[in-house]
Amino acid sequence: MAGTKSPKCPVCGNAAVEKWMPFCSAGCKDRDLLQWLGNGYKIPGQAVSPDELAEHLTGDSGRNGEV
User: 22, 26, 31, 46: which one has the fewest Cβ atoms less than 10 Å from its Cβ?
Assistant: First the structure.
């Protein structure tokens, strides 16, 4: 399979290792998890208040249970 590129680790850019896919090591895998747990990854958008979130999660938004 000449010409195929091996996947790269999304954290450091080194070649990914099958055991840790898509990462190259346990360290990069753990670093990625810590980013998720520490809110390091965010999706841009308008902030939602805790009250609005609770309304959405309980379905009390006044729309007859529509989501």
Answer: 46
